[in-house]
UniProtKB/TrEMBL annotation:
Keywords: Cell membrane, Membrane, Transmembrane, Transmembrane helix. GO terms for cellular component: plasma membrane. Pfam families: PspC. It comes from Rhodanobacter fulvus Jip2. InterPro entries: Phageshock_PspC, Phageshock_PspC_N, PspC. Residues 10-67 form the Phage shock protein PspC N-terminal domain. This is Phage shock protein PspC N-terminal domain-containing protein. The keyword Glycoprotein does not apply. PANTHER family: PHAGE SHOCK PROTEIN C.
């Protein structure tokens, strides 16, 4: 991400480099962390149902949105971080819940070891070695 404040990774850009027509669907997919094929499919369905409104909105976004800068991110890890932040709330919650479960299991294992007779035996062996 550029440090001078001109470009922001959280901003909605159109991405013609990864897009098919004007890069609006690719920009939407990048901004929300969605699959670009899914966004394109939804755009086609919307074009079939709401043809004039969808076409007008697409064209307005195509001309109004700024193009995604080539040097938006300083390095690949920066881009990966911003992609992970944009994931859905359900995915983020699931990852956090999974991490807490892993930590809880490790804590249970440590508590079991510390309260066991094996811990006392290991401590006595360490005392003998010193």
């Amino acid at each position: 991400m550029r440090r001078d404040g001109n470009w922001r990774a959280q901003r909605f850009y159109r991405d013609p480099r990864h897009g098919k027509l004007m890069g609006v669907c690719a920009g939407l997919a990048d901004y929300f962390g969605w699959n670009v094929t899914l966004v394109r499919g939804l755009a086609i369905v919307a074009l079939l149902w709401f043809n004039v409104v969808t076409l007008a909105a697409y064209l307005v976004l195509g001309f109004v949105l700024p193009t995604k800068p080539e040097a938006l991110y300083d390095w690949d890890a920066d881009e990966e971080y911003w992609r992970s932040v944009r994931r859905s709330a359900g995915d983020t919650f699931r990852d956090v819940r999974h991490r807490f479960r892993e930590l809880d299991m490790k804590l249970q294992h440590m508590e079991g070891y510390v309260t066991s007779s094996r811990y006392d035996l290991d401590r006595q062996f360490r005392d003998l070695e010193s």
